[in-house]
Write a structure and sequence with these properties.
The protein is mainly α. It has a single domain (22-108, 122-163), classed as Alpha/alpha barrel (Glycosyltransferase), CATH 1.50.10. 53% of the residues lie in helices and 3% in strands. The protein has a two-stranded antiparallel sheet. A hairpin with a 2-residue loop joins strand 1 and strand 2 (102-104). Helix 2 (24-38) runs parallel beside helix 4 (66-79). The protein is globular, with a radius of gyration of 17 Å.
């Protein structure tokens, strides 16, 4: 509960053995840390501080999954850790898929989609989510995002908006 969190009675550190790829403990820790920072609880609260320590350990892993990197980039953006945020965004930039004037991220090893003239398939939920977290990481910057980041963000937003279904929603549950 929020009162326990404010009093520092809750501790988060679900990081166990970090061996690369999508690590459920790291992902869950990142989700919870993001939620706490969005409350907003300051980074000085022990529960947030402990969670960020776990995430810093996770961020140092060489083989993090692109989805994990996107979550970590946003968590560090919210925490005001510009160095970690930038390092993760730089790493994500190398894995970006650039197509038709837009940018997005996809799961490693995914087969390229065939270019069909009249059929536009929508990306799976995880790809919409991870690309959205990268967008949030670009836009969550103290001070305000630089022009270069806003330019990158607009290319990401273009891809996300292209993923809307006819009712205006997305395949993502996030």
């Amino acid at each position: 509960n929020t009162e326990d969190m404010k009093q520092g009675k809750v501790s988060i550190c679900l990081c166990v053995s970090l061996q690369g790829g999508v690590d459920n403990e790291v992902t869950l820790t990142a989700y919870i840390t993001i939620a706490l920072l969005e409350i907003p609880l300051p980074v000085t609260y022990s529960v947030v501080r402990n969670a960020l320590f776990c995430l810093e350990t996770a961020a140092n892993q060489k083989e993090n999954h692109v989805y994990t990197k996107a979550l970590l980039a946003y968590a560090f953006a919210l925490a005001g850790n510009r160095e970690k945020r930038k390092a993760l965004l730089d790493s994500l930039e190398k894995e970006a898929v650039r197509k038709d004037g837009s940018v997005h991220w996809q799961r490693p090893g995914k087969e390229p989609e065939a270019d069909l003239p009249h059929h536009r398939s929508r990306a799976p939920s995880a790809e919409v989510e991870m690309t959205s977290y990268v967008l949030l990481a670009h836009l969550t910057s103290q001070p305000a995002p630089a022009q270069e980041e806003l330019s990158s963000a607009s290319l990401i937003a273009k891809w996300i908006s292209s993923q809307q279904n006819p009712n205006g929603g997305f395949s993502s549950t996030q």
